[in-house]
Amino acid sequence: MKRSAAVLMVLTLFSLPLSVGAGDQSIPPEANWTPTPPARKTVDAAELTEMLVRKGVLTSVDQRGLMEPQVVPSTKYIREMDRQDASDYITSSD
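Structure (tokenized):
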């Protein structure tokens, strides 16, 4: 009797992980799961600066400065500056 009870307990323990496993469960619709995250919303820079001026965070002078296009130096100018800096570094004495 003890032997059959022990065998039954061992078989129960071995079959337990099979019956408790997750299997092929699907995500319930109430979880509101989407396969890809939603796209980020874009912000209009002019609208944002207008709101910041209204709130008093920016002045109108700051707003004009932010809305001006940034001047990007040409690659030729950057190379010339690099050469000048390198020659200054090489010729400088400590």
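The chain has four helices and no strands. The first helix runs from residue 2 to 20.
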